[in-house]
What we know:
This protein is an all-alpha fold. The protein has one domain. The chain has helices spanning about 1-20, 35-45, 50-60, 65-70, 75-90, 90-165, 175-180. Helix 5 (about 75-90) packs across helix 6. The protein is elongated and about 140 Å long.
Amino acid sequence: xxxxxxxxxxxxxxxxxxxxxxxxxxxxxxxxxxxxxxxxxxxxxxxxxxxxxxxxxxxxxxxxxxxxxxxxxxxxxxxxxxxxxxxxxxxxxxxxxxxxxxxxxxxxxxxxxxxxxxxxxxxxxxxxxxxxxxxxxxxxxxxxxxxxxxxxxxxxxxxxxxxxxxxxxxxxxxxxxxxxx
Length: 181
C-alpha cells in the first residue's frame, strides 16, 4: 500500500511541476510567418538530400542549416527563438506547417510533371534516332551493294586485261546460210 502511495505522489508531483510552463516572450527579432515558411521549406529541401549528396555537400564545405541561415541573413538563435515562440502558439505553428506542406507538395507535383515531360521527349527522341539509324543502315547497305557491283565489274575488267582477251562476238547465223546447207 505504501508503494502505491509513493507512486501516486511522484506522478502527481511530476504533473504539477510540468504544468507551470511559462509562455515564451515574443522575441524582438521575431521572424514573420512568411519568413518562417520559406526557411522551413529550404531546411526541409536541404535535409531531404540523400546520404551521398550530404557527404558531397559537406566535402564542399556546405552545411545545410548554415547555408539557409546565411541565405536569410539570420543566425540559429533567431530561428530557434522564433520557432519556440510559434510552437507555443499552436494555431500559428499549424498554419505555418500547413503552408510548408502545401508548398512542398506543389513543388513535388511540378517536378513529377517535368519528369514525365522529359521522359516523353526522350522517348520521342529515341524513336527518331532509331528511325535515322535504321535509314542510315539501309543507305550503308545500298552503298555497300553498289560498291560490290563496282568491285565485281572491276575484277572482270582486270581478268580480261591480264589475259589480253577481247571478248569475241558471236556471228549471227543468217537464215540464208542455213538454207543453203
